[in-house]
Amino acid sequence: MSQEIANNALMHPFSVLRRVGFSPCVMQRLERYRSQQDREGRVVSMLSWADGTWCALSLHCEKTGAVVVDEGQQVDAYEDARSMLSGGFLPLLSLRWEAHA
Q1: Which residue of 6, 34, 48, 70 pairs with 78 in a disulfide if CB–CB is 3.0 to 4.6 A?
Q2: Is 78 helix (H, G, I), strand (E, B) or coil?
Q3: What is the pTM of this model?
């Protein structure tokens, strides 16, 4: 793993996933995931890295409307996403909410 790549994630709105060109079946699963997270008060965004690794990331942002994903969280998400992608799974991750961050 390149630490430089893992530390430099780009966050995109969920709508970017619609433009990627996933199959209708995959998009249906992603949309269901987004709807489920939305019902629980979370927002789903997309993180991507320069090597093509990506993940859908569920974020808790009820109170402030803002979220910070620090370099450590980016590295953890990168490792989890790569592992899930290599295993044939959709990389659906959740960023844990911390009230006193």
Answers
A1: 6
A2: helix
A3: 0.77
Residue 1's pLDDT is what? 56
pLDDT tens-digit profile of 43-93? 898 999 999 899 999 987 665 566 667 777 888 889 999 999 999 898 888
**Would 101 be classed as within a structural domain?**
no
CB burial class (10 A; 0-12, 13-18, 19+) of residue 30?
buried
Q: Is residue 66 part of a domain?
A: yes
> What letter does residue 50 receive in the DSSP assignment?
T
Strands 10-13 and 92-94: unpaired
Going by C-alpha positions, the residue among 12, 88, 72, 15 that lies closest to residue 47 is 12
| Residue 100, domain member (yes or no) | no
Q: In total, how many domains does the chain have?
A: 1
